[in-house]
């Protein structure tokens, strides 16, 4: 993607506020950020960056180092400061197929299965991949993510994701994968209302259709995020780098949602 002047005007002060500050300020910061965006939008190898985007290794090192330091996550949180809509919040998860190059992260003394669990990689019916869970605000914009190996269920991630909200929502909306008496009780105890349909083998519960029909907002969110090829397919070996891709894509989605950008 091409970084427009309007997007950079919003993005630059956020990056300056959350990036690590060294004695020597980074040169060509806009070009480096543009190169990082281009690589993840196109899903290309770092070495395939066009020459006009600058040295590929500068973009690669910056992205990986900032991922480890949590810069991209802080960037997303700063983009959200203009207002998170909590009238409705949406929980959802999706399976991301991992490219063969995503395997092979450093073992760090752990055997293969433990390494895969640490890096949120695992086998499911869809193949080797990662389960990405998200909680989104009323306008279908990312609040936070959670990663798990591909075969993991979404429900255990729901309560930790709710804990990342800046306040108490009015409605918590999720599909049947979140159907659980204990989870609904947790939502009520927070002061919110669940809109989660029951499974076919469960007793019916109240789930207002006029609320649940809005769940397509989180589905449209996934459609926007997966336009980034590095989101639709995981190329990153480590969980921290893949979360960096997700946080960066979500930040740009927030910036694009602002009028006039």
UniProtKB/TrEMBL annotation:
Region described as Disordered: 102-123
Pfam families per the UniProt record, alphabetical: DDE_Tnp_1_2, DUF4096
Domain Insertion element IS402-like: 3-75
Span of domain Transposase DDE: 172-255
Biological source species: Muricoccus nepalensis
Residue ranges with Basic and acidic residues bias: 113-122
Lineage: superkingdom: Bacteria
Biased composition (Low complexity): 102-112
Protein's UniProt name: IS5 family transposase
